[in-house]
Amino acid sequence: MHNSNLFPINFGNNCTAYNSNLGDHQILSDDDNETAEDFFEVQPNVTFKKTDILFVHKPSHLLSVPGVGPLKADSLATRVCKYYPNAKICHRLDRDTSGVMVFGLTKDSHRHVSKLFEVKLARKEYVCLVDGHVKSNEGRINLPIGKMKTEEGFNRWVIGGEKSRDAITEYTVDARLHASDGHAYSRVIVRPLTGRGQQIRLHMKALGHPLLGDTLHAPANVAFATPRLCLHAQSLSLEIGGKVCCAGVISPF
Predict the structure, then answer these.
(1) What is the DSSP letter of 90?
(2) Which residue of the set 24, 30, 31, 94 is catalytic?
(3) Strand 25-29 with 47-50, pairing
(4) Does the CA dihedral 49-82-87-40 come out positive or negative?
(5) Which of 3-17, 123-137, 145-159, 225-239 has the lowest mean pLDDT?
(6) Tell me: the pLDDT tens digits for 205-244?
(7) What percentage of residues in the chain have a pLDDT greater than 90?
(8) How many CA atoms lie within 13 A of 237 on its CB side?
């Protein structure tokens, strides 16, 4: 068993959802000690609804949509539909990524919001913790992402690869820090301008600073340094009905 305390970092317990135009504000409850099964039990405390759009906080270790088989049947979409049967998810986050997501509650709203993601008009901002101190205060990573077949026959996202597509990520270093054992790490604000698979993980690794807790792409000492992947979608901005609607969830790290 790997020691999840190798990289001692304080994880917070609060998150928030808000609408920037109307001034609506709601403090949500979030505890990373909760299991995914415990989450979303008290429906009014974990959603923010405005007209036909629903913003929801997805915890880490929970699928966005159901997978294949009974072991992957549980997901955020499944849980949301218990309370909003017509809700349809407009985008996805990786299982291990936490943060704000949006659902359409009608066919028209789902179509509209999904189109915003498709044409890159949805503004997304993430927080991540990466290994080491990032040298530049800010930058842009422009590296294509495609797939590569593994020896086991699975497709894996990689820089380059087959049928690669352009991928662009902007980043700003928020803080350069040290863990209590002296290990250097950085807190980085990331804005993906495209939406390729595992884009932030791959781009930060290519920069020489893999994400803490990334068991897919980071070396073992980084992958198992924290109890979860340190990647969080902290804000999402959409234009709805001529107004900018923004929702956010405060990062737990």
Answers:
(1) -
(2) 94
(3) unpaired
(4) positive
(5) 3-17
(6) 999 999 999 999 999 999 999 999 999 999 999 887 778 8
(7) 58
(8) 11
Pair 16, 26: CB distance under 8 Å: yes
Burial of 225 (0-12, 13-18, 19+ CB in 10 A): buried
> What CA–CA distances, in Å, run from 120 to 12, 146, 222, 246?
31, 19, 32, 16
Q: Which residues pair with 171 in a beta bridge?
A: 139, 190
Per the prediction, the chain carries an average pLDDT of 81
Strand partners of residue 88 = 104
**Pick from 153, 160, 188: which is nearest to 174 by CA?**
188
Question: pTM of the prediction?
Answer: 0.81
74 annotated active-site: no
Tell me the per-residue pLDDT of 31-40, one tens digit each, with 9 for 90 and over: 344 333 333 3
The values of phi and psi at residue 32, to 5°, are: -70, -5
Side chain identity, residue 245: C
Number of H helices, E strands in the chain: 4, 15
Strand partners, 139: 171
- How many C-beta atoms lie closer than 10 Å to residue 55's C-beta? 24
- Tens-digit pLDDT profile for residues 66-92: 988 888 889 999 999 988 899 999 999
